[in-house]
Specification:
Length: about 280
């Protein structure tokens, strides 16, 4: 048995050795071919052998593993045999931001946070008040240019705006109002519509007095409006206090020729109490 086994091993050794030598030759030839392929920068994949195919790793730009002259170039689709997605190297793809407003540029501001869709916004408006106690003649609600009201009044709605006085000029021999009688304004800080029905300043040269002469108003004033606050049912002290609260420091906003439908706090500004927003 030992001799027979020995002979069998010797008989089989020769073909197995020959096969091993032949296999080594095939492997050497394959490695030589692979070296030639890698040197040319081309990788050939065999369908069905993705798991066995070698994967090249190396620097993405200017390093070993890339052929000369391709550093930094965006690769095209890559064979699935290399285990990489078929997408080019990503470039800057951040979403662009919308341009922000430059200095001093603001979205269209709207009175009272709501704002009209019509009318013209005026800045630097000086708003003062007059009442039953300091009208001319005193202790009356007489107006010089009645339009909607025969005497000063109004509740502040678009249909029933409060009487307002503006400056006027008699230097030409005619009485010229700074804004024509019947002009409507909307005052966001009062939440009331007003209408020109009276004039501010008495005597032969009213253009030298309050309302028309803006040098008597705070710096930066572009328009002076004197609003009727009533007070017939109140006290003089109460009217003066309400007028002071309404006036503030100037620099108010007004909308000339406003549309209807803006926020309104309807009612007299002062009767027995000061009704301000």
């Amino acid at each position: 048995m030992d001799g027979q086994h020995g002979r069998r091993r010797q008989v089989r050794a020769r073909p197995r050795r020959a096969l091993r030598l032949a296999g080594l030759g095939v492997v050497a030839a394959a490695l030589s071919a692979a070296a030639a392929v890698l040197g040319s920068g081309t990788v050939t994949t065999v369908p069905g052998e993705d798991d066995a195919a070698p994967r090249r790793d190396g620097p993405s730009s200017g390093g070993a593993g890339e052929p000369p002259g391709t550093a930094g170039a965006a690769p095209g689709p890559v064979a699935l045999g290399e285990g990489r997605a078929t997408a080019p190297r990503s470039t800057s793809a951040r979403a662009s931001r919308p341009p922000s407003p430059g200095p001093g540029r603001t979205p269209s501001a709207r009175p009272g946070g709501e704002g009209p869709t019509g009318g013209t916004r005026l800045e630097g408006v000086y708003v003062t008040a007059y009442s039953w106690f300091d009208n001319t003649p005193r202790g009356s609600s007489t107006v010089s240019h009645p339009v909607l009201h025969r005497t000063a009044g109004g509740t502040g709605t678009y249909a029933d705006p409060v009487t307002v006085a503006v400056g006027h000029d008699r230097s030409t021999g005619r009485d010229v109002l700074d804004h024509p009688a019947g002009t409507r304004f909307y005052l966001p800080h009062l939440r009331r519509y007003v209408i020109v029905e009276d004039t501010c300043g008495d005597g032969p040269t009213p253009q030298d007095g309050p309302c028309h002469d803006l040098s008597q108003a705070p710096p930066g004033t572009t328009l002076w409006l004197d609003v009727w606050i009533d007070g017939e049912d109140g006290t003089q002290a109460g009217a003066q206090d309400c007028a002071a609260r309404l006036t503030g420091e100037g620099g108010r906003t007004a909308v000339i020729d406003p549309p209807p439908g803006l926020p309104v706090l309807a009612g007299p500004i002062y009767s027995t109490r000061c009704a301000l927003p």
